[in-house]
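Reviewers asked in the last cycle whether our approach scales beyond single polypeptides. To address this, we selected a multi-component target totalling 228 residues and predicted its structure end to end. The input consisted of the following lines:
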Amino acid sequence: DVKVTQSSRYLVKRTGEKVFLECVQDMDHENMFWYRQDPGLGLRLIYFSYDVKMKEKGDIPEGYSVSREKKERFSLILESASTNQTSMYLCATKRLLVDQETQYFGPGTRLLVL
Amino acid sequence: AQTVTQSQPEMSVQEAETVTLSCTYDTSESDYYLFWYKQPPSRQMILVIRQEAYKQQNATENRFSVNFQKAAKSFSLKISDSQLGDAAMYFCAYDGGSQGNLIFGKGTKLSVKP
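The resulting structure, written as structure tokens, was:
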């Protein structure tokens, strides 16, 4: 079974703080994704990575950056947290980019920015 | 750009009965995949069922089946013999883009009444 873990289930931060959300997968998947989930909006793609040190912007990258130094680990960074970044953040992985393989999701991190 | 629409924000079903969740999508591609994901309250998002667009046969997984109408760009999910554990948010998702990410609908919250 694919296992995708996220560093925190719940996080409370203050405006202006730098926030790190980490995702780790144990299945040697090439592709990793960060989504943001908001009520009534579904899931929206922030960034994704198809290889170590490679990253691509998704639909809503503003205010975020990412890091992938190792294949199994994909970090989402909020450089200066703002209240409008209060949300649920979901990490996902997929085996190959060219095939429409199933994406596997982590448990999510619910972030509150005060 | 591809879009996915779930027109039912909330649905309710009596235990042991059948319910159908609607999903429509828009794409100019001919080859793509469609998914239904389930997200129980405070729990991990998991795959329910997937459909490959080039396959005419509707996918089935135990009590879950889809009605895939490619020409109409419709992909509904039928849950038979509903159980209390089926209560969750259900997301319809499309995968066919070059980025390899999923495009999600806004979700349908399903309640199951005992």
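The mean pLDDT of chain A is 92. We regard this as preliminary and will revisit it once experimental data from Aim 1 are available.
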